[in-house]
Specification:
This protein is an alpha/beta fold. The chain is built from eleven helices and six strands. A six-stranded mixed sheet has the order 3-2-1-4-6-5, sandwiched between helices. Bound molecules: iron/sulfur cluster.
């Protein structure tokens, strides 16, 4: 029987979809692998505690780390941890069922932080900041109990750029969200393996992998309005000028202290003429006011992501 034009069309659409899915998978694994290497996030023998909230980002983080572990040059363990905060309507069975099916060791920590934030924060105000602080403390304790050497969080490239802008706009300082840091209690190393990953890719990945998403807003808290506004601003901007978010993210790794204004980080007060010409000096940055950046950013992206997928 000859294939009808409709059937041929469906087959071609399916082939195209498989091709796109494969490209996305490769890109995500490559970017996470690159971030892990660039910041030496995971070392041989590490026990990585992956914090899984039930949102798309943490599902993707765990999923990609499982994939990378299979081909990693060094052995490391994964343990997924979820904090059940006792929000009304939290579907307790969803994560254990998913994690069991994935064959990942996991721990569900039950702590009623929901009641605490509800009691302490006046009605109508956003609960997220206290909720996150409480959650952080609990997760550090659980990491110690489980003997985890690293704590992996699902923040991605766009979160980092939004945080940078929030700190500039509302905190008047140049400070982002680090890919790797030592926790406030000095006892843990926190890593963000999705540091190079675009949120739009995580949305597609979550759809493709059919993660059983649990909404964070079960508690009824309003999202942080300022954060939501900046996120929207970046999305609009990215639509009009594709590549801007990526450039901003890359900029966080290419800092020229002599061209900022922090007197503690650069010795402006004692700066003297050296009498020696520096071919890479001031000219390299001021001649074109950054107009040559696309080329530099492209080179950096190529180094980080490898050549574009052509398969
Ligand atoms: S939305 Fe609710 S559960 Fe999520 S961080 Fe905010 S307060 Fe916590």
């Amino acid at each position: 029987m000859n294939a009808t034009p409709e059937l041929l069309n469906t087959q071609s659409v399916e082939r195209r979809q498989r091709f796109e899915d494969n490209k996305l998978s490769k890109r995500l694994h490559r970017q996470v692998g690159q971030a892990v290497r660039d910041f030496n996030m995971i070392e041989s023998g590490d026990k990585v505690m992956v914090c899984v909230s039930g949102g798309k980002d943490s599902y993707a983080l765990l999923d990609i780390l499982i994939g990378l572990r299979e081909r990693a040059p060094v052995p490391f363990e994964l343990v997924a941890v979820n904090l059940d905060q006792k929000q009304p309507g939290f579907p307790e069975h969803v994560l254990p069922e998913y994690l069991r099916a994935r064959g990942v060791p996991f721990h569900i920590e039950e702590q009623d932080t929901y009641s605490i934030v509800k009691r302490l924060i006046p009605e109508g105000q956003t609960l997220c900041s206290l909720c996150s602080r409480l959650r952080r403390g609990i997760l550090y304790r659980v990491a110690s109990q489980l003997g985890a050497t690293k704590i992996a969080l699902g923040h991605h490239r766009d979160d980092m750029v939004v945080t940078l802008l929030m700190n500039m706009f509302f905190g008047a300082r140049l400070k982002g969200m680090p890919p790797k840091l030592v926790s406030d209690d000095g006892r843990h190393v926190v890593i963000r393996p999705l540091a190079y990953v675009a949120e739009s890719d995580l949305e597609l990945w979550a759809e493709q992998r059919r993660f059983p998403i649990i909404p964070c807003s079960l508690c009824g808290s309003q999202p942080n309005l300022q954060r939501a506004q900046i996120k929207q601003m970046l999305r609009d901007w990215e639509r009009r000028y594709p590549g801007r978010i990526d450039n901003m993210a890359s900029a966080m790794g290419r800092i020229t202290l002599s061209h900022l204004m922090d007197r503690n980080l650069f010795p402006f007060a004692t700066l003297q003429a050296t009498g020696l010409a520096d071919p890479l000096g001031d000219k390299a940055f001021d001649d074109d006011d950054g107009c040559a950046e696309p080329q530099a950013a492209q080179a950096l992206r190529l180094q980080r992501d490898g050549p574009p997928d052509v398969t």
